[in-house]
Amino acid sequence: MEGLILVSLFWVLYFSLHSFLAADFVKRRFNRQWFRLFYNTVAMLLLLAIVLYMATVDSPFVFGKTPVTDFFAFSLAAYGVIIIRLSFRQFSLGAFLGLKKEVEDVEFKSGGILERVRHPIYSGTILLCLGFLLYIPKMINLVTVVWIFAYLPIGIWLEEKKLIKKYGRDYEEYRSRVPAVFPKLF
Asked: Model pTM?
């Protein structure tokens, strides 16, 4: 039980720091390219630390593993990776990571996968998380997925505030017709 409480605290701290560092007033104080590289490095190192801690916690299985759950786990994870890869056809991965200079006046994009969903990276993350949980269905992983899913609406809300500020009416119109993370099938 202590491990579940501690991992919950780690996720709350991680997402709080993530949101704080992503805030415009923080970004303005630093060189954008180097800050983005710093931001992603800190995020990855903290994420790695949390995952390594999770691996040390003795946690019961929530349900049993079967070849069927493994199949669905790999399928969901594969689709998650595909969606994230497709999203980087619309954005520069190098600029996203801070390895390449970000263009300040990026035009508003709504083509490709962005025609179906506004936040494809979050969509892919949801599928990856569900795949991970199905593959290793332990209580600690369920707690992690719950925290990630609880943060996603907050992350989307913060991101959309910035996008509305940057693109105004274009983004608001786009937002009114394209779903956030779950594409309309029909």
From this structure: 0.86
Residues linked to residue 61 through DSSP beta bridges, in sequence order: 138
Nearest to 78 by CA among 128, 145, 136, 120: 128
Question: How far is Cα 173 from Cα 118, in angstroms, rounded to an integer?
Answer: 12
Of 156, 132, 160, 135, the closest CA to residue 146 belongs to 132
Task: Report residue 139 as tokens.
Answer: 């209580």
Q: Which residue has the tokens 């991992």?
A: 7
Q: Strand pairing partners for 138?
A: 61
* CA distances from residue 2 to 25, 63, 130 in whole angstroms, order as listed: 36, 21, 24
Compute the half-sphere exposure of residue 60: CA atoms within 13 Å on the CB side of its CA. Answer: 3
pLDDT computed for residue 169 by the predictor: 94
Q: Angle 139-167/32-56 helices, nearest 10 degrees?
A: 170
The share of the chain scoring above pLDDT 90, in percent, equals 70
Closest-CA residue to 55 (of 117, 121, 138): 138
Q: Cα(182)–Cα(127) distance, rounded to whole angstroms?
A: 11
